[in-house]
Amino acid sequence: MAGNNSVVGGAVSLAQINEKVIIVQMLVSIFLCINSLLIITFFRKECFYTTARYILFAVTLLSDSLMLFMSDILLILNYFGFAMQVWICVIISVVVFVYNIVTPVTLTVMTLERYVAICMPLRHAELCSTRSTMHCILIIHGLSSVPCIVVLSTFFASASLSLYKQYRLCSVEMFMLSRWQDHVRSAVQQFYFLIMVIIIVFAYVKIMKVAKAASGEDKKSSWKGLRTVILHGFQLLLCLIQLWTPFIETAVIQNNVMLFINVRYSNYILFNLTPRCLSPLIYGLRDETFFHALKNFACFGFHKRNV
């Protein structure tokens, strides 16, 4: 893979690289600024950090922000061909591997929270208390660490000690020393997403039944919850497609290097950045309580700067 990256580096002009990098920096900066504003708003009101769905929303914001920041750094390093020692790449990759899974797992838990709120309202306070949510966050990170442990375990079992001191471009392909390791990684991740899809479909069907049977305010709340589940499902679909992009890129690079560069760039924008910018839309702008708090904070901050 390092050889392929060096070929890519030679094939692309500096102007083309700069144009792509600048566009990504603009998008990442916008998303990070929005996420930062939402995170500050979350901590300004007690009702947010004592309510399950808002706590989980904050987890996705923090996870997405960290993932965007780390993946952006790796993107820049790879575009400009900056190599690092393998052991440093391992440390960085642990964060990237784990938080690449944290967001979709959290989205699944948020879907279950909506299912409990709408289909089991009498038990919602008990099952989705602040204490239970904190325990849930620990479980989310534990589950999200399993694919990382699998990938690194297969790498540690196959890599020689001398490899850790070598300089390589840091990418996930660096850990795939054999074809079977790539298959194991893909199998574990797709198993995770299969379970997530099943949970979301289950919640969708149950909430839809409640929405059809409800009336008045309950009906409005149920259909709003149903739309939230659909948006979570769309986010997960984009995350799932991201798992298939390495297979597409591997097939493309064998035929056309320039096409490979454009495909990898497009994949990063569509399936890495896009799913992580939908969370602010789903809970930050669609939720009336959070939107009003965000609006008040933004207006107050603007007024304060002009006083």
UniProtKB/TrEMBL annotation:
Source species, domain of life: Eukaryota
A GO MF term: odorant binding
G-protein coupled receptors family 1 profile domain segment(s): 34-283
InterPro entries: GPCR1_Superfamily_Member, GPCR_Rhodpsn, GPCR_Rhodpsn_7TM
Record's GO cellular component terms: membrane
Pfam families referenced in this protein's UniProt entry, alphabetically: 7tm_1 (PF00001)
Listed transmembrane segments: 22-43, 55-79, 85-112, 133-157, 187-205, 226-245
Keyword set, alphabetical order: Membrane, Receptor, Transmembrane, Transmembrane helix
SUPFAM superfamilies named among the record's database cross-references: Family A G protein-coupled receptor-like
Major localization listed first in the record, in broad terms: membrane
Localization annotation: Membrane
Annotated protein name in UniProt: Nociceptin receptor
